[in-house]
Design brief:
Bound molecules: fructose -6-phosphate
Number of strands: 10
Number of helices: 7
Strand content: 15-25%
Strand order of the largest sheet: 1-10-9-6-2-3-5
Distance between the termini: 13 Å
Structural class: alpha/beta
Shape: globular
Number of domains: 1
Radius of gyration: 17 Å
Helix content: 25-40%
Largest sheet: 7 strands, parallel
Order of helices and strands: EHEHEEHEHEEHEHEHE
Length: 248
Amino acid sequence: MRIYKVKDYNEMSRKAANIISAQVILKPDTVLGLATGSSPIGIYKQLAAWYQKGDLDFSEVRSVNLDEYQGLSPENNQSYAYFMRHNFFDAINIKKENTYIPNGLAEDTAAECTRYNAIIRNLGGIDLQLLGLGGNGHIGFNEPGDCFEKETHLVKLSDNTITANSRFFDSAEDVPKYAISTGIKNIMQAKSILLIVSGPAKAKALYKALCGPITPAVPASILQLHNNVTVVADEEALELVPDSIIFY
Ligand code: F6R
């Protein structure tokens, strides 16, 4: 595991965007696993800026998102499908038919989960999986629990996640209670993983993820077992992690 400590959110975004950019340059038809939320917005902005300058080409890139709220249509401005278009896809030349996000409106959730797992498999797996970290240690919407969920599944969001994500909605009541998320096995099968973490609210979760026991109570702790993980986190997020395990 490589851990890069950077000054702040902007530096995190630039460094992580550099890593993704290198991946796209080295493998133009790369399969990117993508995340939503506040953490990756700066990365998407930076990548879009490099695309606008002519430095990056996404025409062959395929992308698979981690998750989607159940019950929200792709047109709903709180959906992750909308988020991805608004924050990234509309600003680059990725082909929309090469972008995959779970269908939050699927009537048969189990069939949708099976379909999504097959999409990832048929793409040949994920080359680079981008992950944010929940304040409760979740990755994707794999919430703390008694066992690691393996593949794409329906999740009942924890109160912690609903409260954290209510900042994007009018009120906590408006946050969907369920989501479809890829599982820990989907994530762990990615060839490489890029975890980005910023801010003091994530410090405890990041410490437990990097230094604590590997347990489904802290889903991100499983990343300690992956052999190609890069963490880019800022000083505030890394506050509790001993300097001895950090690269600068
Ligand atoms: C988003 C996702 C979540 C977020 C996490 C952190 O697709 O799967 O795991 O990455 O909740 O969210 P932010 O970045 O908003 O703090």
